[in-house]
Amino acid sequence: MTRKALLLGATGLVGRDCLENLLASDDYERVCVLTRRPLSVEHPKLDVHEVDFDNIEACQSQFQVDDVFCCLGSTMKKAGSRQAFRHVDHDLVVLAGNMARRGGVQRFLVVSAVNAKARSPFFYSRVKGQMERALMKLELPLLAILQPSLLRGAREDKRPAEDLGNIVNRIVEPLTRWTDAHWLPVDSRKVADAMVGMALVGPDTGLYRLRYRDFLVFAGKFREKVTRAD
Question: pTM (2 decimals)?
Fold first, then answer.
């Protein structure tokens, strides 16, 4: 059975890799993308809509799909203020969850953060945690929350903290392979592979939080599935 997918945040680090995976997968017959900016990607099954996310509710018909992949996210520097950051990382994500529920979506997969906590004293972690809590209240058939630590990958915008974390990780990672090590930086490709892998070979219902070790498992399952298809 082929599926239809909706991707939000296709121009971001994980979103770009996720889009590539969805287009490469024979399990998806159509991939719809809502984006603020034009995409340089073209594909027969790709359906791109340039939208004003402040008016995203006008796009309810695009949420009549099987799976929604939400990779929306910003930074304080890029957003410009706490209010603007919360609007993207909390308000828009939760609104997308509501629209997914109204559209009858089976699976909603979202990128959060390893330190997400609704009552955290740290603003970033608190916003992520409150976003997760709001999504859980929607009781979607399947909600998969991916919680990476620092992300590796070629970003358009430089993030010194992530660059430093990646350098440290290259030194200590060989010493931590035997631990759960949820705090280890992870390639954006692994997260995107795990995201699509969870949708395709994971359970159909329930609430799941995926971290570093889970990324490795579901990324591996996705790559196995792609290899078999080839």
Answer: 0.90
